[in-house]
Amino acid sequence: MIRKPPLPTHLAAALGRLDGLRIAARARLAHLVADAEQHRLAGLRRLLESGLPPRIARIPITNVHCGSDYTAKIGIGSEHATADVILDTGSSALAVSPTAYDGSGDAHLKATTDAQIVHYGIGGWAGPVVNTSVGFGPGVSLRSTSIALWSVQEMGVFNGATGIMGLAYSGLNAVYDLAAYFEQKKPPDTTYPWPFPEQDFATFAGDFKQLRKQYGIHSRSVAPYFDDLESNGVVANKFAFHTLRSWVCRRAGSQDAIAMDPLNQGLLVLGGGEEQTDLYDGAFVELNVLDDLYYNTSLRSVQVDGCAAVAVEPLQQQFVEDSKTNAIIDSGTSVLYLAADVYAAITGSLRQLDASFGAALDAFAAANQQHQGYPVDQLRLERWPDIHFVLEGTRGEDVRLTCTPRTYWQVDYPAAGQAYFQIIGPLEAGDANQSVLGLPLMNNYYTVFDRSQSTRGVVRFAPIRRPEGT
């Protein structure tokens, strides 16, 4: 077992977001399957009744702003304020920083009595929920949708992005209606402008908990932005990602050149997937989505090429209520964040296969303590094996997804000529046996999240087509 390296700020933030959302969702699960199924069936009816092909939009995305997670530009309000929002299948809120959009001068803005507070493992944010126009550009926009403005935020939660757009289900998108509070505290009577004094997040979170208790305020789920797009007939109930790596490639030198590097670019396809034949080669395989809180899947085994497959432990019973299954597919996690047994199986197999692999992992861990990567010229990446993850398919069959060395070792990060190992184990003993299959696995595939199929949807993977020169 290698010594665990320190986590870069943006990775710690991503894992903190995930841990906090697991806890926050506990009380809102009972009705969600029925709600999701009603939403899915309504979308299918709309498509049948319209008789028109659904609109499909290809949205440019980049990992440059965060250094890892992919962001897309959205326009907000009548003045089209621009925010770079993280695209996260592991959460559901749409929220932006006031540095990108503060509501001033927005003729479309309608204040509400709702507030949103989201707790992550490393802090969180809180602020008013307003209704206004939000879109990716002409043809893919809504005249009125819910969006939160960060008025209280733990520093570093989003590290370079000015917003987040969750692409998961409504169970992770809770708001609090403060109407009962405002009835006794007039003025004001809405949460925008933010009526609370400036505080650090921990202090505000404690005070807000007491306020909710005092006034009997409970949470309710609201439609995430993508659900709103789909239910308004803007796009069909699916989206897809085309990405080549997670952490930003720094081979190009200058910041302008890094921003233009094709390795740091990708696409979000809204309303479509399989018809984008220029983005993939070969046939799709299909995974069951086993719960519609996250994109939950079942991981059965893991295998390093040249070694025996190792069966994966199920999720412990005490975590089933919150975490549901032993794996999720998450575009907002820039590593493979693995359960203890899965991590041990992979690193143990690598060490067994070749002593030089173990030496490289140890050297990387030591270098990373100094915020450095492992020298690419010593890595000999062509010698490293593929790693296979076997998951449950839609017919109960085994589906094998492969992570290649070029995606679990990402070169030219944190600096040109260095490499970063993209596989980490649990941060604490006793964590849930849940593996977060993040971008390093998705980077090998064109990945389609089709929520129109079956009650909870499916996730499809086809070998990614890489542009020339990448």
Count of individual domains: 2
Under CATH, the homologous superfamily of the largest domain reads Acid Proteases
CATH topology of the largest domain: Cathepsin D, subunit A, domain 1
What is the count of DSSP helices, taking H or I runs of 4+ residues? 12
Spatial order of the strands in the main sheet? 1-13-12-27-28-14
Q: Hey, roughly how much beta strand do the residues contain?
A: 25-35%
| N- and C-termini, Cα separation | 33 Å
**Major sheet: size, sense and barrel closure?**
6 strands, antiparallel
> How much helix is in the residues?
10-25%
In the CATH hierarchy, the architecture of the largest domain is Beta Barrel
Structural class: alpha+beta
CATH class of the largest domain: Mainly Beta
Averaged pLDDT: 89
Taken from the alpha-carbon principal axes, the silhouette is globular
Over all CA atoms, what is the radius of gyration? 22 Å
Task: Extract low-pLDDT stretches.
Answer: 23-33
General description of the model:
By secondary structure, the chain is of the alpha+beta class. The chain has 2 domains: 9-231, Cathepsin D, subunit A, domain 1 (Beta Barrel); 238-463, Beta Barrel (Cathepsin D, subunit A, domain 1), CATH 2.40.70.10. The chain is built from 12 helices and 28 strands. The strands form 5 sheets. Strands 1-13-12-27-28-14 form a 6-stranded antiparallel beta sheet, with no helix packed on it. A 6-stranded mixed β-barrel has the order 2-3-9-4-7-6. Strands 15-18-26-19-25 form a 5-stranded mixed beta sheet. Strand 21 (387-392) and strand 22 (398-403) form a beta hairpin. Helix 8 (340-353) packs across helix 9. The two termini are 33 Å apart. The relative contact order is 0.16.
